[in-house]
Design a protein that fits this description.
single chain, Rossmann fold, 3 domains, 8-stranded mixed β-sheet, 4-stranded antiparallel β-sheet, 18 strands, about 35% helix, elongated, binds adenosine-5'-triphosphate, nucleotide-binding, ATP-binding, FtsK domain-containing protein
Length: about 650
């Protein structure tokens, strides 16, 4: 107990008497103080109990006040009944009194006040951060600056949190209304300062609230890299691109990572006729995981549909898919790729025509027009080099119809390309791939050039494979970690990952040595993609899963045309350090403003690009589609199917 000062007694009279008086006064004061101390020691328990009872009484009163009126009667009845029972029980009142004293003593005990506020080191860091922001968030002539040298940092930082190791975890800061928070460069400056002062080596998310002039910085943990390929719980048409931060998506999926099963927040891409982003483009530096992403998507797509793979890089990393049920082909050579894509283009038209005829006849669309078809093209520009050297058409030209009309025909196109070859991507690929992914290290400008918006997070120094950013249409840019889906035929692949991928592969329809069908092939029948325009099935022609060897075609190309890398044959690649807005490049190449995707998002470009293609391939397609919609002539029927072979241009 703190001692209370005794009241001072004023004296008057002669000096001696005053001295005597003051001595006795001092003695009596001392006596009184000792008595008070002893009394407080003796009565200390009682004081504590009294204080506790007072607190309990106050809590009870508060509870009574908070109880709705209609509940007070039953409550009073219950309390009265308890008191009655206690009174009737032998020794009940005594026990109740002891319990009450005990509760009072517990409630009245002295509690050490919890220390609040940041420690000295944390205060120092916050002050340093505040001072660093002063030049950017203050102007001369502000009568009441929020940021000023030696200013009040507590006014500017209403909320902050540090982790156990003393690193800043979260910071909410106010900024003056005159700060140009609508300008990207002004924001970027503040973000850079905060990134440097909050500690490099971690990723931070910045949430700008222009309405209240507040910025919230949150340190983000690394995305999980232990999620491997597995069956994800999704609906047909939904594909998991990877996993992201829990606060940025509303959904979680149960996943097995390492030994345990947990819920993880996925980036789910919805495809099909109702999708607003029916096709996907992934760009990245070499070796950052684009092939892995495409392999992961192929394995998911094979659950409900058929897949065609164009392996432009010719690295054979899709070999595990060859000869599997639902895999219509894995092509790595120019001739095979051209034939395959030509077939896919005609198949898209055929589906449109068949579905339209069924609609006109009042029937549902036939099943064979509704089975999803996936065209997965990894590095198609590599084949464009060879095609240009051989004087043949760019395989990307055959992607035009699937890209433009694939959505209605259940045809989805996925393209992956290296940053440096992005300029060689055809204009339809750029215009119609509204789902975008950037993999590997990339600056904010590079991410913006591909996704149409910068990431709201800082870059990290060490980027694990499969890490990047994803944006679906005009939605927010999300951090992305692709599930590990390595090539099971690669010797470097670990046993656990190999087994995980092999478990997802459909059964073989062709034995590994390619001798012939391993088992009877039933629906869906793989299609002979090498006879473009003819919709016969593999049973009538070549078997599915027949993988062409890239080397053959390349060798042929070299033999015929000489070095395909001759300067006149090869277009100059883009300098990745000089970021290229690939949406704009399309406009430059096609020379038409109609091909430029507007700045307000890819969705707005859909209509613009419909008519802005060059006429060579666009016109026949337009004619076919007009026919499909009943405005043109009747399509020819071959073998009982609508022949969608290329109309005369
Ligand atoms: N999500 C991932 N998780 C774990 N490892 C990955 C992931 N993505 C890629 N890797 C690993 O990174 C390496 C390169 O991957 P991948 O071949 O997919 O990259 P890439 O971009 O296609 O490269 P390139 O274009 O040069 O062929 C491989 O060893 C692969 O196993």
């Amino acid at each position: 107990m703190a001692r209370r000062p005794l009241p001072r007694i004023l004296t008057s009279g002669q000096p001696l008497a005053r001295m005597t008086n003051s001595a006795s006064l001092a003695r009596s004061r001392e006596l009184a103080r000792t008595a008070a101390d002893s009394a407080s020691d003796v009565f200390h328990p009682l004081i504590i109990i009294a204080r506790g009872l007072r607190r309990l009484g106050a809590a009870g009163r508060g509870r009574w006040v908070a109880t709705p009126r209609e509940h007070r009667g039953p409550m009073a009845f219950f309390v009265g009944a308890c008191v009655l029972v206690v009174c009737l029980v032998p020794y009940g009142p005594l026990l109740a009194l002891i319990t009450l004293m005990g509760a009072g003593a517990w409630a009245g005990r002295e509690r050490t006040p919890v220390e609040t506020g940041p420690g000295e080191a944390a205060t120092e860091r916050l002050r340093a951060l505040y001072e660093a922001l002063v030049p950017y968030l203050s102007v001369d002539g502000d009568p009441s600056p929020l940021y000023a040298p030696d200013g009040d940092w507590e006014r500017a930082f209403p909320e902050y949190a540090f982790d156990d190791s003393g690193r800043l975890e979260r910071l909410q800061l106010k900024y003056p209304a005159y700060f140009t928070d609508g300008e990207d460069c002004a924001r970027a400056r503040i973000e850079q300062v905060l990134y440097a002062k909050a500690g490099r080596g971690r990723e931070y998310h910045f949430a700008w609230d222009e309405l209240t002039n507040q910025l919230t910085l949150t340190a983000l943990g690394p995305l999980p890299t232990d999620i491997a390929a597995q069956r994800f719980v999704t609906s047909p048409g939904e594909l998991v691109l990877g996993f992201t931060d829990p606060d940025f998506v509303q959904r979680t999926l149960p996943v097995t990572g390492g030994e345990e099963t947990r819920d993880a927040p996925p980036v789910v891409w919805r495809t099909g006729p109702r999708s607003t982003e029916p096709h996907l483009l992934a760009l990245g530096q070499p070796g950052t995981g684009a092939t892995t992403l495409l392999r992961s998507l192929a394995l998911q797509a094979l659950q409900h549909g058929d897949v065609l793979v164009i392996d432009g890089g010719g690295t054979g990393e899709y070999g595990c898919l060859a000869g599997r049920r639902g895999v219509l082909g894995v092509e790595s050579g120019l001739a095979g790729a051209l034939a395959t894509l030509e077939w896919a283009s005609h198949e898209t038209e055929r589906r449109l025509i068949a579905a339209n005829r069924a609609r006109q006849a009042g029937r549902p669309a036939p099943d064979d027009t509704r089975r999803p078809l996936w065209i997965i093209a990894d590095r198609p520009t590599a084949l464009a080099h060879i095609a240009s050297a051989e004087g043949r058409e760019d395989p990307q030209e055959w992607l035009q119809v699937p890209l433009r009309h694939g959505r209605a025909a259940h045809v989805t196109v996925v393209v992956a390309e290296h940053f440096e070859s992005a300029e060689l991507l055809s204009e339809p690929v750029r215009a119609h791939t509204k789902a975008r992914v950037v993999l590997g290290p990339a600056t904010a400008e590079e991410v913006r050039a591909v996704l149409g918006a910068p990431p709201h997070t800082t870059p990290i120094a060490q980027v694990p494979p499969g890490r990047g950013y994803a944006r679906l249409g005009t939605a927010a840019v999300l951090r992305l970690q692709v599930p590990a889906t390595p090539d099971p035929l690669d010797d470097a692949t670990g046993q656990a990952h190999r087994e995980a991928v092999l478990a997802l592969l459909p059964e073989r329809t062709v034995p590994a040595d390619g001798a012939g069908p391993a088992e009877p092939v039933d629906a869906p029948q793989p299609v002979d993609v090498h006879k473009a325009g003819d919709v016969r099935t593999a049973g009538e022609g070549r078997s599915a899963g027949d993988v062409r060897k890239t080397e053959d075609v390349r060798a042929a190309g070299d033999a015929k045309t000489g070095d395909v890398r001759k300067p006149e044959n090869v277009r100059k690649p883009v300098d990745i350090r000089k970021p290229v807005d690939i949406r704009k490049v399309g406009a430059r190449k096609s020379g038409g403003a109609a091909a430029v995707e507007p700045a307000d998002g890819p969705a707005a470009a859909e209509g613009a690009t419909q008519d802005g293609e060059d006429g060579s391939a666009g016109e026949p397609v337009g004619a076919a589609v007009r026919a499909a919609h009943g405005k043109g002539g009747e399509p020819r029927v071959v073998n009982g199917s609508a022949d969608a072979s290329r109309p005369e241009g």
